[in-house]
């Protein structure tokens, strides 16, 4: 068929070009008119199909009968190969078949493709008519008392709430097969979730991975580390809100976008309805498969929604996200997604009793909101809708979006609301990224701060935590790039400077969530002109532009301080019915001049009694912005006393990072000491100040009838106490830099007694600082995530009572050395291991170093047919014949070999009379990286992989992927071929040898993973493994034949090139309990062939060795046991690998990491950190297995024994920073 198309194209293309030239030259106006008409017609047709794709409301899956099965076989994508394969399997004795020699591989391919196993019958009304936004809308009337929302934020039980989340991919946590006990898995999840809480987040976005739960068709596993119900129970226990991302597509960072391998292999199903890249046509089979996934998953989630209240407490799921990234655009920048895609998922969710608000994440800011294409087609759609040419768009309850740089490109909420029709829905950045780069602009802290200041109340940070990864979960792009330093928290729990800054921002947000979450920008609300008590109504900063200061404010009602302000309430009303207006000023000094940002700034405040905000300010405070060059400053904050008296903070030029409630009317405010962030506090009334601060009693303009207290902290760390006129008290704790960097807050759980006690004030139950790794759980417990503390080893806890449990810490009776001693609410501890030397944790016991080599002959090889093998003579086309000779009928994915490696072998016997040239060459086309051995001689290899530089989904990216073989995403062109001169390694027999000399070629191919179906690219089924193989330089036909017989249709033999048989070998992942856990080598779990080997130490500390990888020996394996010192069982322990080889690392049976063949060293976390892979019993050592092989081009041939080896240096250390190696 390919040859016919090519032959036709040679004739038709020139004729078409000539015809087009005649039309253009004869009548240009007619040509232009026809082009415009065709474009407009295509656009209208595409938009009409976009809004009404013809999908049916009811989907019924039934088994096909035999007759229907035969008819449906014509729908296969790979018609030529698989049609011929079916014939080869069903007619093995035919003269035109291969005699059944390919039966095994053909049957494997048929089993995986499984074309005729089911049919979807369609009935019912069109989804466009059956599913409307009104029918799937969240029932605020019924569930509003538990969960409601408006354009400002969510309200959980009436309490304003920000949803501040980071992605928690539970399936990325490396848990070895030996750790199957539910208690151990739950403990691992608990430790990770506590890390999220310690970082300041109150929510997680959980992406449920279809492929992780479904290893094979019809099989689903929700046990062990897949136990979704247990995970959600744990979130409820710890007070962590959940954004449940159901998928089925979850992102472009995982293989296949999260779809299971068994679904990807069924190429008669259009994944994400993509018929080709940029073209979608509705597929009922795919819709039915989505329904199968929802049937299995949604039942696990229903009982865990926030509006669910049971004996175990309140649920945790605050919103449910359908699909992900459906906003790709196709030809002419028209929207590519089908409206029925979201309609169907919304209907399936509601029919399965999901009650939480439904959200989508299909749009990108600003591309899909303000770009010329977006605005043009929005106008066209509006006009077509008015003429009833197209139907209305479907909108979920909450239309989330993706933001790449919210600080550099601020979100216009009015534009977002207009496009998403979400006038009364909170703004949700469900994927908030930071821009690349090391500058402060490319930081999570700035993005989070900018998002909150711009009014976003829901946000989630992807890849904020480097939980780690294992096996083959990653997509090709992520597999190659790795973390690249993007994450703020490393896999061992270490916090970057950005993570520490982000944590402070989140602490501030949560400390004033009750007062500020349901706020509006002052530019969108009328100014208050009068108030019953001194109230700040405006803030400006001298030396900074107006755009550098964003001010948001909220009203609090006297009757119910925790309820939201009724919309009908007049916002300019004054009097005793209103207690206070809370105001937050977000100051960004990064765009200012260096002197303005670094020097002391003047904060100018205007009171409500001032005649006009533009006619001067009421008073001023001075302060600096601190290391972040940004700040969040609170005004109009009230602390209520026991007797009804109030202590009112009028304004502050000092950031208050968190608040801890000790009693009614008694709070602790935690700030930075003066050398870090200079500022003052301004209180109403004459206050008494003791401790580490001074006070001045002053009066101000516009409030001459009152006195005010101007509190000035003293230099250095310490505690100052401010007592109001009516007894309300605030203890201001000033922290040093190290203490501020380690500040952790106890936010309690949903229904804990402490949370209810502090629910009306917003203050927290407790806080702690001093060392990294502090975890604060409910019920007053404090523990350390890591045993080893930093050099101080001192831990300070602020709480109204002594913590009940302090794991790994010892209480200090004498704390006079501390700058915070002498207060009954401050408790001092010391880490029990702080006095031990850090060096002890690098002393590990390594024993039993052994080695083995993969035996090619012991592997389960299967014959692999080419396209020509499955053709009959009447189907041979002269122009495609030579191509079909070397093109294989099946790729690795067709037979389930979706692991990292697939192996190919060719055996051919050669005699002198077969040679037709002085050199013998082997031409290979692979995806993605191959290594070639010919008769045991390493011939190096080549790589066919390209990382796109253009924006994904753009026309430039499509063109780039077509020009470069092995594109990371998008279409993959046929290229990627390399030719190897194998003459020196080939064996040629004597002329009189009847059989000829045997030659064996082994090709090991490493795949970087399947495509992801992202951005409208139909790439999940892009070929992997060995695509084609051609020999040059010999002819097996022999002396008594000539080459003309190859093209002789009457010749009853196939070309003698078919005597060159290729075999394939790998691991069928659909037969594994965990399909992502294999390297692809069938002998990866072999316990035979191991022999002791010798270590070659090269460093002075810890354990280290230098291994020499013989590139001609094939694939080699090493293993050993590791047992750290007793006091370091939970300490992070890294394996560092340096050497230009491919290395795979298993720990306790789990494929944990991969080292790419590059000069850049790798560091693998063996144990400890967020997800530990250690054995359950501490007395059992960890088993480490490393598989390695390399290329001859990278080998050293100067060894005395004549071997070609690549030196690989291995070491165990306690840091991801690689140690200095000895020469």
TrEMBL record:
Keyword Membrane: yes
Residue stretches of biased makeup (Basic residues): 75-85
Biological process (GO), any one: carbohydrate metabolic process
Domain Glycoside hydrolase 35 catalytic span(s) in chain numbering: 154-329
Source domain of life: Eukaryota
Region (Disordered): 71-101
Keywords (A to Z) from UniProt: Membrane, Transmembrane, Transmembrane helix
Signal peptide start-end: none
Protein's recorded name: Glycoside hydrolase 35 catalytic domain-containing protein
């Amino acid at each position: 068929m390919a040859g016919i198309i090519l032959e036709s194209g040679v004739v038709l293309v020139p004729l078409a070009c000539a015809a087009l030239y005649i039309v253009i030259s004869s009548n240009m106006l007619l040509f232009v008119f026809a082009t415009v008409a065709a474009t407009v017609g295509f656009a209208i047709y595409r938009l009409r199909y976009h809004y009404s794709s013809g999908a049916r409301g009811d989907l019924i899956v039934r088994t096909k009968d035999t007759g229907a099965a035969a008819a449906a076989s014509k729908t296969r994508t790979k018609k030529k190969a698989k049609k011929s394969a079916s014939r080869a399997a069903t007619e093995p004795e035919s003269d035109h078949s291969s005699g059944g020699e390919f039966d095994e591989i053909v049957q494997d391919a048929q089993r995986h493709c499984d074309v005729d196993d089911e049919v979807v019958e369609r009935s019912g009304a069109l989804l466009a008519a059956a599913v409307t936004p009104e029918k799937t809308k969240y029932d605020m009337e019924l569930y509003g008392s538990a969960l409601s929302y408006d354009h400002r934020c969510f309200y959980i039980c009436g309490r304003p709430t920000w949803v501040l989340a980071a992605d928690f991919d539970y399936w990325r946590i490396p848990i070895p097969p030996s750790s199957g006990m539910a208690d151990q898995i739950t403990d691992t999840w608990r430790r990770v979730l506590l890390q999220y809480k310690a970082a300041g987040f109150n929510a997680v976005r959980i992406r449920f991975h279809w492929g992780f739960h479904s290893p094979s068709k019809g099989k689903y596993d929700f046990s062990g580390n897949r136990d979704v119900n247990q995970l959600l129970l744990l979130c409820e226990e710890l007070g962590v809100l959940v954004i449940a991302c159901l998928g089925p597509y979850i992102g472009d960072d995982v293989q296949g976008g999260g779809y299971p391998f068994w679904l990807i292999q069924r190429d008669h199903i259009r994944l994400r309805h993509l018929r080709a890249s940029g073209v979608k046509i509705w597929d009922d089979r795919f819709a039915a498969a989505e329904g199968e996934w929802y049937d299995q998953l949604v039942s696990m989630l229903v009982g865990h929604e926030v509006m669910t209240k049971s004996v175990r407490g309140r649920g945790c799921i605050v919103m449910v996200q359908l699909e992900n990234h459906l906003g790709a655009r196709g030809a002419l920048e028209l929207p590519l997604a089908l409206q029925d895609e979201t309609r169907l998922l919304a209907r399936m969710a509601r029919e399965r009793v999901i009650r939480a608000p439904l959200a989508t994440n299909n749009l990108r800011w600003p591309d899909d909101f303000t770009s010329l294409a977006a605005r043009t087609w929005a106008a066209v759609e509006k006009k077509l809708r008015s003429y009833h040419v197209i139907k209305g768009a479907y909108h979920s309850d909450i239309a989330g979006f993706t933001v790449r740089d919210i600080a550099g490109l601020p979100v216009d909420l009015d534009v977002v609301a207009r496009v998403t029709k979400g006038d009364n829905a909170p703004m949700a950045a469900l994927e908030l990224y930071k821009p690349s780069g090391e500058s402060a602009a490319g930081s999570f802290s700035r993005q989070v701060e900018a998002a909150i200041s711009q009014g976003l109340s829901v946000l989630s940070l992807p890849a904020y935590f480097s939980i780690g990864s294992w096996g083959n979960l990653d997509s090709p792009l992520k597999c190659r790039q790795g973390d690249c330093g993007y994450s703020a928290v490393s896999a061992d729990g270490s916090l970057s400077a950005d993570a520490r800054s982000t944590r402070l921002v989140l602490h501030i947000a949560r400390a004033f969530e009750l007062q500020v979450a349901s706020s509006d920008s002052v530019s969108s609300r009328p100014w208050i002109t009068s108030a019953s008590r001194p109230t700040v109504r405006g803030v400006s900063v001298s030396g900074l532009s107006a755009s550098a200061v964003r001010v948001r404010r909220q009203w609090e009602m006297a009757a119910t301080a925790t309820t939201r302000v009724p919309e009908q309430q007049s916002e300019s009303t004054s009097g005793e019915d209103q207690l206070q207006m809370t105001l937050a000023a977000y100051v960004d000094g990064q765009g200012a001049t260096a002197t303005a940002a670094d020097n002391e700034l003047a904060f100018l405040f205007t009171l409500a009694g001032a005649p006009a905000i533009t006619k001067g300010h009421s008073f001023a405070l001075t302060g600096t912005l601190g290391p972040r060059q940004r700040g969040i400053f609170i005004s109009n904050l009230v602390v209520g006393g026991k007797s009804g008296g109030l202590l009112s903070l009028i304004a502050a030029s000092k950031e208050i990072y968190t608040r801890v409630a000790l009693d009614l009317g008694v709070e602790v405010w935690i700030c930075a000491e003066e050398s870090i962030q200079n500022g003052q506090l301004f209180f109403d009334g004459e206050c008494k100040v003791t401790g580490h601060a001074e006070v001045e009693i002053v009066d101000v303009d516009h409030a001459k009838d009152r006195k005010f207290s101007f509190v000035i902290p003293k230099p250095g760390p310490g505690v100052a106490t401010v007592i109001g006129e009516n007894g309300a008290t605030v203890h201001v704790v000033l922290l040093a830099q190290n203490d501020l960097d380690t500040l952790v807050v106890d936010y309690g759980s949903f229904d804990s007694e402490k949370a209810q006690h502090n629910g009306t004030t917003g203050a927290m139950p407790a806080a702690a600082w001093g060392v990294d790794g502090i975890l604060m759980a409910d019920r007053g417990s404090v523990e350390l995530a890591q045993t080893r503390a930093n050099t101080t080893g001192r831990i300070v806890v602020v709480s109204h009572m002594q913590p009940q449990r302090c794991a790994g810490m010892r209480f200090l009776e004498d704390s006079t050395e501390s700058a915070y001693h002498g207060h009954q609410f401050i408790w001092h501890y010391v880490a029990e291991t702080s006095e031990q030397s850090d060096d002890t944790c690098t002393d590990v016991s390594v024993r039993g170093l052994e080695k083995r080599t993969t035996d090619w002959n012991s592997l389960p090889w299967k014959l692999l047919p080419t396209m020509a093998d499955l053709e009959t003579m009447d189907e041979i086309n002269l122009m495609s014949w030579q191509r079909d000779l070397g093109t294989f009928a099946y790729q690795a994915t067709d037979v389930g070999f979706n692991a990292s490696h697939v192996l190919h072998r060719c055996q051919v016997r050669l005699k002198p009379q077969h040679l037709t040239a002085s050199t013998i060459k082997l031409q290979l086309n692979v995806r993605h990286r191959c290594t070639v051995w010919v008769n045991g001689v390493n011939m190096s290899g080549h790589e066919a992989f390209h990382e796109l530089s253009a924006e994904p989904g753009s026309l430039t990216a499509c063109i780039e992927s077509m020009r470069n073989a092995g594109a990371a995403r998008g279409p993959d062109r046929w290229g990627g071929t390399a030719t190897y001169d194998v003459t020196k390694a080939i064996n040629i027999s004597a002329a009189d040898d009847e059989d000829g000399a045997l030659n064996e070629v082994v090709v090991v191919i490493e795949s970087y993973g399947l495509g992801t179906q992202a951005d409208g690219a139909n790439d999940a089924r892009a070929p992997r493994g060995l695509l084609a193989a051609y020999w040059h330089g010999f002819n097996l036909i022999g002396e008594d034949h000539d080459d003309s017989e190859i093209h002789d249709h009457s010749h009853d033999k196939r070309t003698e090139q078919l005597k060159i048989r290729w075999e394939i070998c790998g691991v069928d992942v659909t037969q594994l309990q965990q399909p992502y856990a294999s390297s692809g080598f069938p002998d990866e779990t072999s316990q035979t062939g191991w022999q002791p080997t010798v270590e070659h130490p090269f460093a002075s500390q810890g354990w280290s060795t230098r291994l020499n990888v013989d590139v001609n020996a094939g694939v080699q394996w090493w293993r050993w046991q590791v047992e750290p010192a007793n006091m370091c069982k939970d300490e992070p322990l890294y394996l560092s690998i340096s050497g230009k080889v491919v290395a795979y690392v298993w720990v306790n049976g789990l494929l944990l990491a991969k080292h790419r063949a590059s000069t850049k060293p790798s560091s693998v976390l063996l144990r400890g950190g967020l997800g530990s892979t250690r054995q359950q019993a501490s007395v059992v050592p960890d088993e480490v297995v490393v598989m390695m092989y390399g290329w001859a081009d990278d080998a050293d041939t100067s060894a005395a024994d004549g071997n070609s080896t690549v030196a690989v240096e291995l070491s165990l250390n306690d840091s991801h920073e690689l140690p200095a190696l000895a020469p």
